[in-house]
Amino acid sequence: MQHLNLPATGKGQKVLNTDHNRDKSIAVHEMITQVAALFPDQQKALERIEMIKSEKIRYVRDQLIMVRSGIADLDAQTLSQVLNYCLENRIARAPDFKSIIGIQRKEHIQK
C-alpha cells in the first residue's frame, strides 16, 4: 500500500509534548509498590507488573498510571478475577487490562 503525504490540517496549532501529561512525582519503583498495594493479592499484582516491565520497559510508568486509573473503583473480587485472568493468559498491556475490566463490569451489570 502506498502512503500519501497529505497536507497538514490545523495550521498554526501547537504541537503538544505528551510527556507533560506524565506523573513524574514519584520514582517508578515507588509507583510499582503503590499500584501493587491497590490489589487484594499484592504478590500476584507484582507478578503482573513484572510482565509489564519485561514487555513494555520503556513505558512502565504510563502502563502503571493506566492500571491505577482503571482499578480505582473496582471491588476486590472483580479485581482479583481480572488479575487472575491476565496472569493466566499472559496479558501485560494496560489497555488490554482496562478492556477486560470493562467486560467484567458489563457481565456484573447483566447478572
What would your notes on this structure say?
With 111 residues, the chain is mostly helical. It has one domain. Helices cover 59% and strands 0% of the residues. The longest helix has 17 residues. It is globular, with a radius of gyration of 17 Å.
Percent helix range: 55-70%
Biggest β-sheet strands, sense, barrel = none
Order of helices and strands: HHHHH
- Given the structure, what is the number of helices? 5
Radius of gyration: 17 Å
What's the shape? Answer: globular
Q: Summarize model confidence as the mean pLDDT.
A: 83
Q: Helix/strand/pairing class, anyone?
A: mainly alpha
N- to C-terminal separation? 46 Å
Instruction: Tell me which oligomeric state these chains represent.
Output: single chain
Instruction: List the uncertain runs.
Output: none
- Topology, number of strands: 0
Number of structural domains: 1
Strand content: under 5%
Quick summary of this structure?
The chain has helices at residues 28-37, 42-55, 60-70, 76-88, 94-110. It is mainly α.
List the helices and strands and how they pair.
Elements lengths: L27 H10 L4 H14 L4 H11 L5 H13 L5 H17 L1
List keywords for this structure.
111 residues; globular; mainly alpha
